[in-house]
């Protein structure tokens, strides 16, 4: 193989995962602990920025229902104005005693048309008012068809709740040490075929320039078929580990970050799930091991105490 | 490879599947025969415990419709009280002859608003009553949008019905013996690309402590493209099988369990399906073989008798 | 490796695909040409037999809408009877002139309640009639929520339309011959990541008993990324092909069948699609090759003539 | 291996990707730059041509809502005619003063039935009119169930917005050169597990005939786990690259085309996404490299300027 090809081969074997090497600013964390990326887009088209379906799916429930309510009131207001401009005398049954009562009866008639409840105490009579109310009922049905679609989109979105230990530990493991963190499914539904990948990133000097590099860390067990209890992910600190000679100080100095990507399947719906997490150097605890989460108290069932996911106790490391 | 790495390698090669080694209580079965895990969560957040969409999807149909009915009645009751407090004189058409008739007319008006049927015999007149009924119709539409979403979620949930033989058999196979169990798709829709994995778990003494260990069992055929009739899963008891020297007594003594995980694709919807099952030592029959399920009675079509999935007859084992 | 293991190894390497070896009746075709299996289930539970969601999804549109209409009429009939039994005098506005008119007004009132149109010409007044109509509107909304879910299930079901050539050909190929068949996507939407597997099945004498055996046939190209035009699937008849020494007569005598399983992805919805097809020995044409389907007529666009998918012309085979 | 098998082996190793070798017309581009194929189908069945669900999903929103409006008006018109033919005297409340007013009241009554708003100012009285309005309300509910399904289908369709650089570059890379193009996700939602494959196609003389051939191009990095910023896809021009000896002139002369297929997963919904793109020889820039898109301006967050995806500056190639 020629020298040229060797260089190419080296580059090919480098692990990048999609972050690139140019993002080297030490103060900035690329992958936030909630699994979001610390990147903002500029120059998006309006449509891409709006991304309206996505926004309606991921917004909190309170905001979602508030927007539905506001749109409902706004539509009623617009149609009420329209009936008022056409002339409320074309709405049979409107209380004509005052402008105030006329407007509000138009408003309530609008609400009765939009929701298709149509009591009939107020009903359209003239040509224009009848046309507008025909359209309004269609608009109402469209709006509720849209809301139905959005609601199902929100329901069916895979939304796993994985709890992670607050800290990653450097713990004794067999007769060496290992990097460990622990996770557990907070929900009672089963997650299966779980796979985890762990990437170690730090800033290194290359040709005198600080460059962020990425290293995949091999795991004792990267895949499990079932995930009924807790799972401690273990990267053994063997001689070939990129962490073998690291110290708390060297990790802090090189702005080290451990990035975790998890995928699996939600057993109830057979939906794929994807979860990300990360630990920074300062979230590592050196010389500790996790304490058990499962209680064996003599009952017929295993008890898993979720609040203990981050619990650890000091432990002497192997040297 | 150093001694350290060998230990790591051993650990890496151990098959765990996500159960961990600390759950050793003999009286407890981890994977129940219905495919559920025998684990209870403690300390869940309210939201994770509620897991409301999941619950509405997996509950029985009777409970689902009962809850819909109760929510409907409850909402009507709440709105009826509200109209009553506002004053039923603001609902035109209410039968004012008694408190009883007033309340029930408010209740029926509420039902007519919530469902948007709005006959109009009773209709709101005052400002407050009109506002409440405007909101009630919106609430009704939201409620039915939610129910529509839940219904589709229930419909579209992959829900395979795989029948398993009641027993796993130790049966003669070629010139040795094999562990066998049989399964069949109860439904007429096709399952394709089926994969099965079989894990043998037992309690062993390690360093004087009882520890549950897991062993993957190799299968004669772990994957089939089609699954139109019955499928007998076969683990040959060759010399390298973890079961090679086991006896009925040793399996019972070590609290042996055979755990099965199946995945495939439902051909109608191209949905992934996942099924789990397990056999305990006492569900094994030694010296038996399954009898055929397919009838060949001269018709133009093969007849598959599902009730025979567990049928077997005695057979001499090879030694 | 011991003799025992060799037998096991042979069995393991046999290709079965899920059909089993016991189905040997020559008159019966296991995989029908429309991709359905020729198997009938006996002893299904009522629920598995009903398989109601599945049936509603795969039934023809005409049947689907007919059932919706019949259920609508049936529900109206049942509720009309109920109102009649309660007493139509509790429905204000009913035409009391005859039993006939009373029943039909109860029926139309029922329809107006079930669809929630609720004109109000007829409206409930008494306690019992009001309760029944409250429930009927709820039933109506549930029914339409169910229909909405079924409609979306029908819409979103992957339903590819792949056209196959009527015949598989034994055609000259390079300097040997090959088994070929041709397929094309009838729809204009793109299918991508297509994979095809081809299985040859025939009845052989084993230990004096006729036994159906299955052989995978290697393909010149088993996977394509894109499928914009036609695709001719080619199994070269090399010396290691299970078909190498077969003749039209030997194939007919051994009840040969070629089974095809195709999977891919519909580009519009990213849905997985699965298609099956089969050719029997009598559907083979020896000494022919497919004629082109793509017309190059000087326009800016390629024209694919779907009706030509099965067109072939005689061709001399290589020997 | 015999000579026959060698020929077969060669054919097997050729990369075709599903395009076939017969499409050689130089003026026609097979894969258009928007990812669509330049192929038109002839002889489709009406149903396959109609492909109605697909059309309703991919049509622009304006067209979609316009069709809903037109169908609504058309249905109202048809039912209005029906009521008119039955006799509007069977619709209580119709303004009988003129044929014009009779028709429009029938029309508005129809709209009130179809949307199930049913004010009741106009209501059916006779047998025929009551039957028609019962059916109309059912039709209306079916129509809105269909629209709800279509809306959700439109919402949930994976619809990634990947921006590509206008040009592919031949850029210096390590100590050789490479073919490069750049892409970025315009939306803020995360795309994960991205895979890219790149195919080079050109017309070659084979046996004196022009034939289009396809070559897969190996990439420095064909898969990334995350895609938070921009991704420059790199094909190194090593000695074994099919592009190694190409020049701008030779590529233009052989009608070269670079076809790109990308797949990944949308993190929000765990939906698979598929994107295609292509560059023609004239869209290549020789001797240039991309300029950075990420701004590091001292803020807490990385800024990605999407408008710069195609920006490049001249660069000397390595020879």
From TrEMBL, chains A, B, C, D:
Task: Give a single Pfam family match.
Answer: Ion_trans_2
What topology in the membrane does the UniProt record assign?
Answer: Multi-pass membrane protein
Q: Which domain of life is it from?
A: Bacteria
Where are its TM segments located?
Answer: 63-86, 128-152
The answer to whether UniProt assigns keyword Zinc to this entry is no
Inward rectifier potassium channel C-terminal domain ranges (all copies): 162-310
Q: Tell me, which GO biological process terms does this entry list?
A: potassium ion import across plasma membrane; regulation of monoatomic ion transmembrane transport
Ordered alphabetically, the record's keywords are:
Ion channel, Ion transport, Membrane, Potassium, Potassium transport, Transmembrane, Transmembrane helix, Transport, Voltage-gated channel
Q: Which InterPro entries match?
A: Ig_E-set (IPR014756), IRK_C (IPR041647), K_chnl_dom (IPR013099), K_chnl_inward-rec_Kir (IPR016449), K_chnl_inward-rec_Kir_cyto (IPR013518)
What GO CC annotations are associated with the protein? Answer: monoatomic ion channel complex; plasma membrane
Q: Which residues form the Potassium channel domain?
A: 72-151
A Gene Ontology MF term for this entry? inward rectifier potassium channel activity
Which compartments is it annotated to reside in?
Membrane
- Name recorded for this polypeptide: Potassium transporter
């Amino acid at each position: 193989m020629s020298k040229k090809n060797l260089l190419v081969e080296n580059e090919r074997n480098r692990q990048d995962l999609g972050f690139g090497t140019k993002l080297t600013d030490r103060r900035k964390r690329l992958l936030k602990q909630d699994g979001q990326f610390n990147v903002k887009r500029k120059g998006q088209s309006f449509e891409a920025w709006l991304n309206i379906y996505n926004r309606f799916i991921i917004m909190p429930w309170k905001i979602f229902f508030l927007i539905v309510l506001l749109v409902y009131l706004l539509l009623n207001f617009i149609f009420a104005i329209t009936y008022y401009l056409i002339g409320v005398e074309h709405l049979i049954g409107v209380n004509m005693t005052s402008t105030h009562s006329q407007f509000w009866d138009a408003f309530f008639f609008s609400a009765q048309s939009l929701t298709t409840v149509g009591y009939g105490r107020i009903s359209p009579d003239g040509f224009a008012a009848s046309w507008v109310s025909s359209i309004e009922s269609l608009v109402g049905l469209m709006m509720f068809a849209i809301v139905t679609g959005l609601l199902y989109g929100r329901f069916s979105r895979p939304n796993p709740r994985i709890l992670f230990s607050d800290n990653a530990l450097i713990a004794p493991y067999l007769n060496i040490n290992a990097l460990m963190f622990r996770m557990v499914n907070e929900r009672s539904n089963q997650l299966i075929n779980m796979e985890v990948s762990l990437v170690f990133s730090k800033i290194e000097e290359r040709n005198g320039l600080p460059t962020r590099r990425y290293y995949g860390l091999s795991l004792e067990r990267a895949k499990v078929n079932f995930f009924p209890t807790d799972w401690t992910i273990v990267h053994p600190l063997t001689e070939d580990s990129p962490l073998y000679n690291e110290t708390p100080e060297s990790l802090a100095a090189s702005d080290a970050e451990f990035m975790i990507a998890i995928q699996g399947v939600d057993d109830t719906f057979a939906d794929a799930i994807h979860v990300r997490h990360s630990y920074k150097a300062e979230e590592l605890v050196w010389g500790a091991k996790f304490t058990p989460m499962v209680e064996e108290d003599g009952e017929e069932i295993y008890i898993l105490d979720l609040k203990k996911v981050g619990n650890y106790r000091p432990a002497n490391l192997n040297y």
